[in-house]
Design goal:
By secondary structure, the protein is mostly helical. The chain is built from five helices and no strands. Helix 1 crosses helix 3.
Length: about 160
Amino acid sequence: EERVKRSASRAVYVSYLRRVGLLVVALIFVVTGVSSALRIVINAWMINWTSEMNVVSPSHTSGYYLAILFSIMVCSVVLSFVQALSVGLGGLRASSSLHDSSLSRVLGSPQTFFDTTPVGRILSRFTNDQELLDKELPATMADVLHCFCVAGGGFALAVVAL
């Protein structure tokens, strides 16, 4: 028996995102975008702080710059937590929904399917597909979104710098 490997179609990803939920997807998108923007703000703040320290009489103390930097970093950490929680819960929601749908389709198959297909093969395929839904797909989609937000932030920064 040969093992067939295929890539998932775009419809699979769209179905997954629908099952995650529009509000959760929007929340993940916004939080990822703001988190990426905060990373840029942190870098800009550090540049501002170090350039101010080279002045003979700085306008603010190091404590001022450190307090602002700390507050921006706390916001960034909170947003990262919200993003991870949203991706995890959204992925769980989609995975559970797809599991229920897949299980009902397998159990609704005709008896000839179960007579000709070994139970081990059915279980192996079902568990492997479910493992991909549980572990890899949420992380991959979050990584892709993060890459788009970082690229978009870099593009926006380049436009502003012009």
